[in-house]
Description:
Strand content: 15-25%
Order of helices and strands: EHHEEHEE
CATH architecture: 2-Layer Sandwich
Radius of gyration: 14 Å
Shape: globular
Strand order of the largest sheet: 1-2-3-5-4
CATH class: Alpha Beta
Mean pLDDT: 90
Largest sheet: 5 strands, antiparallel
Number of strands: 5
CATH superfamily: Histidine kinase-like ATPase, C-terminal domain
Low-confidence stretches: none
CATH topology: Heat Shock Protein 90
Distance between the termini: 20 Å
Amino acid sequence: MNLIIISSNTEKIYETIEGILSQLSARRIPTDLFYDVKLILSELFVNAFIHGNKQDPSKKITVQYSIGEQKLVLTIGDEGSGFDYKNMRDPASDENIIKMSGRGLFLVKHLSDNINFNEKGNVITIEKNLD
């Protein structure tokens, strides 16, 4: 399991995403799965940075990941107060369809093969099959 702890800033986030993606690219996984993982990473980091850590560069984002032969396991945590993941709104419902945000976790949930949150709602673990 790889562990990375970064400050909440866009440069560090970009570097971390690119580092993970370069390791995936070396595995020569199918293109559609590569882009699924890229979107998952982007959405989870944006949520940790904006919603969790409120763009506070003094707060950290913790990333743990392993890239196995058949799956990626990724855990991202922030120092925010968390959220009620048990009552996520449906971005496709009539009252949410025109809102500018609220689709990230919906996408992550549908692109991942397994998704879990800690009780507080500030750490998420996803699994993505790579075959």
